[in-house]
């Protein structure tokens, strides 16, 4: 039995539950904090994980990317927000909590590509209002981090990404050790993605009832998709291309999906 690791959250929970059904007894599921899940996979304590695509970008020569399913965000999900001090004409310093990750890379890409700014990153700690007093802007990725902050002086950077590219932001992907993957696992992942995405589209359709259609893009509420379709592939490729262009990632990984040997 192969071991699967992931940090269960509100955005991937339905996908993981669907996978538990489609995989049957093929996978042993472990719910671990994000960093521990990545560590378990890299240390060969797990065979497969639902992990940030940055991990694939770092170790693409050793691990394989599974197609069929992913976690991709579209629009203003409200999770990753850039808060700035009012009255500024430029953001020169950007504060981040914790270690570097996909969220601060996205913030840098947007500030450089869309607004022509080149912020210097600073690690911040403590309550957000005090942290914001020391820098021009801070990035928050949870409600706890942005307690007492004025949301009117902020940008939803996932929404900004969609506005700039018209592409989803792929947040999590299925990656595993190539020699431990097989057609059964691949099929289970693909089927789970299809099931979860169909449910997500039903929810989206219900949310769109009664909305105006003068501007089709603005009429679409924020949502998540779960199939690794052409838009998701292009969104992830575009993210890596921009990250490489601005010196935030060492290369542009080849997004080649695992395939069973004939």
The structure class reads alpha/beta
Report the end-to-end length measured between terminal Cα atoms: 23 Å
Outline: globular
Oligomer: single chain
* Low-confidence runs: 213-217
Assign a percent range to the helix content.
Answer: 25-40%
The largest beta-sheet arranges its strands as 2-1-3-10-4-11
Provide a descriptive summary of the structure in words.
The chain has 262 residues and is of the alpha/beta class. It is built from nine helices and eleven strands. The strands form two sheets. The protein has a six-stranded mixed beta sheet. Helix 4 (102-113) packs across helix 6 (157-165). It is globular, with a radius of gyration of 19 Å.
Put the structure in a nutshell.
By secondary structure, the chain is of the alpha/beta class.
List the helices and strands and how they pair.
Elements: E1 2-6, H1 13-23, E2 27-31, H2 34-42, E3 48-51, H3 53-58, E4 63-74, E5 81-84, E6 93-96, H4 102-113, E7 120-123, H5 128-134, E8 137-140, E9 154-156, H6 157-165, E10 169-177, H7 183-207, H8 216-219, E11 223-225, H9 230-245
Helix pairs in contact: 1-7, 4-6
Tags for this model:
single chain; 262 residues; alpha/beta; 6-stranded mixed β-sheet; 5-stranded mixed β-sheet
């Amino acid at each position: 039995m192969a071991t699967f690791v992931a940090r269960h959250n509100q955005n991937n929970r339905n996908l993981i539950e669907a996978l538990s059904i489609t995989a049957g007894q093929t996978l042993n599921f472990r719910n671990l904090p994000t960093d521990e899940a990545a560590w378990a996979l890299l240390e060969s304590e797990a065979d497969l994980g639902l992990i940030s695509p940055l991990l694939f970008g770092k170790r693409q020569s050793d691990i394989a990317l599974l197609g069929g399913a992913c976690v991709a965000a579209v629009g203003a999900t409200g999770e990753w927000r850039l808060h700035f001090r009012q009255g500024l004409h430029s953001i020169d310093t950007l504060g981040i909590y914790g270690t570097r990750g996909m969220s601060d890379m996205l913030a840098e890409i947007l500030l450089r590509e869309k607004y022509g700014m080149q912020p210097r990153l600073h690690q911040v700690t403590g309550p957000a209002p005090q942290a914001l007093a020391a820098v021009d802007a801070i990035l928050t990725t949870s409600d706890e981090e942005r307690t007492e902050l004025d949301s009117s002086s902020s940008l939803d950077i996932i929404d900004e990404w969609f506005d700039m590219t018209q592409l989803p932001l792929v947040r999590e992907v299925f990656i595993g050790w190539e020699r431990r993957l097989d057609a059964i696992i691949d099929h289970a992942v693909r089927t789970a993605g299809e099931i979860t995405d169909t449910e997500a589209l039903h929810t989206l359709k219900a949310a769109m009832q009664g909305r105006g259609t003068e501007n089709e893009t603005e009429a679409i509420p924020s949502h998540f998709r779960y199939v690794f379709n052409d838009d998701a592939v292009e969104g992830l490729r575009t993210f890596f291309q921009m990250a490489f262009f601005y010196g935030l990632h060492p290369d542009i990984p080849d997004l080649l999906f695992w395939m069973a040997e004939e």
